[in-house]
């Protein structure tokens, strides 16, 4: 009978054998740490809905980025959280060279070597209505938003950002930013939030960024979760418009899309965003004794990697790096 079947158990009999036969590789350099920057000095304020994550003033942001870099996580993604008084229908605080994120980028590039600085480009946190584009009446005006996103990206690039990452899901956003960067001879690369779905998994992030829409929802510009072919075409459009890297968001709920996108565009660097909701599912499960936090986090990240992601954006990047190293 023994000759009638193959034996796989010997391949995983010990930890050494399991490590030797693992064919999916993940390293700290494949992880991207999201960071939330606020005005002030000496601010390190924990975010109650996003355990282990804080609002950081620029000085504390530099410290957190250094910890990440020293752990092997060499990429960070910045989100600006402006004060309520800075919110405006036209998102004016997002576009100046004195913008919060631009100042944070400049400080990071001046203080830390070997760090790739990425910036989120969206106006949701900077508008008084919380939508990702400027409004005409109650509707988001796609084409009126494009110059604002381009100006915001250019501000970040002038400060030294290595990547600008438009997340507003406006049609033509990558092209508008690419043209503005080329016009100003700026060398930042563009990472599109290309296949970004309208998801309930963004709840803790919206609380952290103060970016929940004041009315309605984002289903008219973020993708319907019942679609898959459209996601591949969104990625194709971003690449045709000049994106240097693309993204699928969320990640663990959309592993099929990560696999589809990587199969369709194998040469394009592909990021996947392990969203705040997905991350907090791991945290809450561990807090309730359902599994070990570290094991749950790593299983999530390896699933995303296994599906085809080159980079993984995760709030657990530093903790994961300690395991990987």
Give a structural overview.
The model has no long low-confidence stretch (mean pLDDT 94). It is built from eleven helices and twelve strands. It has one domain: Aldolase class I (TIM Barrel). The protein starts with 14 loop residues before the first helix and ends with a helix. With 325 residues, it is α/β, with parallel strands linked by helices. Strands 1-4-5-8-9-10-11-12 form an eight-stranded parallel β-barrel, surrounded by eight helices. A two-stranded antiparallel ribbon has the order 6-7. α3 links the parallel β4 and β5. 48% of the residues are buried. The chain is 39% helix and 17% strand. It is globular.
Distance between the termini: 43 Å
Q: Assembly type of the shown chains?
A: single chain
CATH class assignment? Alpha Beta
Question: How would the global form be characterised?
Answer: globular
Count up the helices: 11
Summarize the SSE layout with pairings.
Elements: H1 15-21, E1 31-38, E2 44-46, E3 54-57, H2 58-71, E4 75-80, H3 100-111, E5 116-121, E6 135-136, E7 139-140, H4 142-159, E8 163-166, H5 173-183, E9 189-196, H6 203-209, H7 229-241, E10 245-249, H8 255-264, E11 270-273, H9 276-287, H10 293-307, E12 311-313, H11 317-324
Parallel strand pairs: 1-3, 1-4, 1-12, 4-5, 5-8, 8-9, 9-10, 10-11, 11-12
Antiparallel strand pairs: 2-3, 6-7
């Amino acid at each position: 009978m023994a000759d009638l079947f193959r034996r796989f158990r010997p391949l995983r009999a010990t930890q050494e054998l399991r490590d030797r036969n693992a064919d999916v590789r993940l390293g700290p350099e494949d992880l991207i740490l999201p960071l939330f920057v606020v005005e002030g000095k000496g601010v390190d304020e924990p975010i109650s809905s996003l355990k282990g994550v804080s609002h950081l003033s620029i000085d504390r942001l530099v410290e957190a980025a250094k910890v990440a870099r020293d752990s092997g996580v060499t990429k960070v993604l910045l989100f600006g959280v402006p004060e309520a008084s800075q919110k405006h229908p036209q998102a004016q605080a997002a576009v100046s060279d004195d913008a919060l994120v631009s100042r944070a980028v400049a400080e990071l590039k001046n203080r830390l070597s070997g760090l790739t600085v990425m910036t989120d480009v969206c106006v949701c946190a900077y508008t008084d209505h919380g939508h990702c584009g400027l409004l005409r009446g109650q509707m988001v005006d796609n084409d009126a938003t494009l110059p604002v996103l381009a100006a915001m990206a250019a501000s970040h690039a002038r400060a030294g950002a290595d990547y600008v990452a438009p997340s507003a899901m406006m049609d033509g956003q990558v092209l508008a930013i690419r043209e503005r960067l080329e016009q100003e001879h700026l060398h930042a690369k563009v990472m599109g939030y290309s296949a970004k779905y309208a998801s309930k998994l963004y709840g803790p992030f919206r609380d952290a960024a103060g970016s929940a829409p004041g009315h309605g929802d984002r289903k008219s510009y973020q993708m319907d979760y019942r679609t898959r072919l459209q996601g591949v075409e969104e990625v194709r459009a971003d690449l045709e418009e000049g994106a240097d890297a693309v993204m699928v968001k969320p990640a663990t709920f959309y592993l099929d899309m990560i696999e589809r996108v990587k199969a369709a565009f194998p040469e394009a660097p592909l990021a996947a965003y392990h969203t705040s909701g997905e991350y907090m599912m791991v945290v809450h499960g561990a807090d309730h004794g359902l599994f070990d936090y570290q094991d749950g986090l790593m299983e999530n990240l390896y699933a995303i990697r296994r599906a085809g992601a080159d980079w993984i954006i995760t709030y657990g990047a530093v903790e994961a790096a300690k395991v990987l190293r």
